Amino acid sequence: MNPLKKILFIVGSLRKNGFNEQLAKKTEELIGDDAQVEYLDWSKVPFFNQDLEANLPVEVQEVKDKVRESDALWIFTPEYNHQIPGPLKNLLDWLSRGAPSVLKDKKVTFAAAGGGSGGASVRDFMMLLLNQMMMDTMSMPNTGIQIPMTAFQTGQLEIESYPLNQLKRQVKAFLDYIA
């Protein structure tokens, strides 16, 4: 019997209980016992500064080690002005640096909760970015969740049946992809 694969979740918003964190928790629930899920705490990663690369900040080394130890990554990203949030891009910049990069050939997928388009723009951008970073990106399916206006009042992300079915397909496909 093969050991469980370790999937490291990267939630692209630092906000506590944000919509993408809720999406990640739903995804973890759908994965169940089929893989080991861990959440990356990257809240203390400093702004990228090439002057710091020779002597990496401990916070950067810790997140690089977590990524290196994982079998795969699942990134959950909000859509800010049709792009990924600056802090998430900063994290990915740190992770992509150094030889060899901890991201090179790392299996990855992504999902987004955002606006009326379900994060369509940010999902397109993520595909380009992750491929540019030479990651082993599962291109399809990826899930976009539209955040209804009521969610901004309640703070709760309610996932309707169609996107939930998309997410279930993505979970199954990714588990097969990393097997």
Automatic annotation (TrEMBL):
It comes from Faecalicoccus pleomorphus. GO terms for molecular function: FMN binding; oxidoreductase activity. Gene3D superfamilies: 3.40.50.360. Residues 6-138 form the NADPH-dependent FMN reductase-like domain. One of its GO terms (cellular component) is cytosol. It holds the Pfam family FMN_red. This is NAD(P)H-dependent oxidoreductase. InterPro entries: Flavoprotein-like_sf, FMN_Rdtase-like_dom, NAD(P)H-dep_reductase.
